[in-house]
Amino acid sequence: MHFQDTDWLKLSLLSWERIVRLRPRTVGDRDSEVVREIRGESDLLQEVTPSRHDLETVADAFFELLGHEDLVCELNALHLGAADLTLGVSADLFPPLSQRMTETGHHPALLWIYCGGIGTKMSYLLRHRLIEAGLAVQVDRRDPWIGLQPRLGTVYLTALADTVARHNALSPVTDDPRMHQAVGALDRLADLLDLPVTPALQDTRAAYAHLSLRAVIRPDRIAAVPVSRLVAFRQRYAPELAAFHAHIDSLATELEQITAVENAEIAQAHLQTLYERTTKPQLDELRRGLRAFGVESTLSTLGLKVDLGAVSGTALGTLAVSGGHPAMGAGAVALTVVPYIAGRLKVRQQQRTDSPVAYLLAAEQMSKRSRLGFPI
């Protein structure tokens, strides 16, 4: 519901056309200023609430889970009957600060899920069943929130995210590295209950896009770039972003193999290796090509030393070569050099257009100029 990492969201502004967030409209706004700015200046964030179909799908899966005889021990461990609700909850499983409830009666060690009338994240029947089973608590009947052990609450929210994604052709992502891998969570609830909450790649395609951008934009730079410049860049380089997404799609087989890796650090290492083997060489080649056909190299080649052989192709150039009037010679140089530079710029632009990684180079240059205060 709330973004923890604003730098992650800034990279997402450069990576994706939309991010759909499950956020009840009746819940108070606890977003940071950066999130509010992105909401106000771009079309990146879209907020939705789970449909009745979404809620019933997850509820049916949990009803089956609660009646599973082989999960008695796991469910008993998640029971909230103890006087001290922190028992059995390790500190690293506590909800992140922005998600902790500060209202009276809402224990900070529990993960609280909104169950109000409009925008509820849980069906009434499942909420009643969880409270009845001692797996959830409620301050009073008017309270729109229920608290669960973080492990159970995390499993529920990932299953909900997975369900909404399935029903709307979306892919689950998160900026909270402690969350379970959401893809396919609905089909493996029993396994998730018995597994520790460990860092995992939510979506290798999204992870690869962020890794590629972090390779060209240092963390201190993305933090320093104003949202307004990121939004302008996003609009200006939309075609290049589409080409970069097509490049990532071409790596689908390799990314699918990395999805099966269970250790997050090893998965990240595989992504880095894939980047260095496929994307980085293309980026380096584009840099070399643009340097060869850039305006800077053209001007340094010309300087005060003009290629008179090329100039002599015009009538004015012939006069200059043969020692004609100085003004005529200068005119010949101007008439020849301008289309020469224009031609090299055309080749340079064509190289950008043809490269699937031109977007990364543009992002790198944008971050450097923004740090120096130059317009993009």
Strand order of the largest sheet: 3-5-4
Distance between the termini: 32 Å
Query: What would you report as the Rg, rounded to the nearest angstrom?
Result: 28 Å
Mean pLDDT level = 74
- Write the element-wise H/E pattern from the N-terminal end onward: HEHEHHEHEEHHHHHHHHHHHHH
The low-confidence parts are 87-95, 196-200, 293-335, 340-345, 372-376
Question: Can you walk through the features of this model?
Answer:
It contains 18 helices and five strands. It has helices at residues 6-15, 33-41, 52-66, 72-77, 124-132, 150-168, 189-193, 204-216, 219-224, 227-236, 238-249, 252-259, 264-292, 295-302, 308-311, 315-321, 326-354, 358-372; strands at residues 19-22, 45-48, 111-114, 136-137, 145-148. The strands form two sheets. The protein has a three-stranded antiparallel beta sheet, covered by helices on one side. It has a two-stranded parallel ribbon with strand order 1-2.
What are the SSEs and their pairings?
Elements (H helix, E strand, L loop, with lengths): L5 H10 L3 E4 L10 H9 L3 E4 L3 H15 L5 H6 L33 E4 L9 H9 L3 E2 L7 E4 L1 H19 L20 H5 L10 H13 L2 H6 L2 H10 L1 H12 L2 H8 L4 H29 L2 H8 L5 H4 L3 H7 L4 H29 L3 H15 L4
Parallel strand pairs: 1-2
Antiparallel strand pairs: 3-5, 4-5
Helix pairs in contact: 1-8, 3-6, 8-13, 12-13, 16-17
How would you summarize this macromolecular structure in one to three sentences?
This protein is mainly alpha-helical and 376 residues long.
Question: Characteristics of this structure?
Answer:
3-stranded antiparallel β-sheet; disordered C terminus; 5% strand; mainly alpha; elongated; two-stranded parallel ribbon
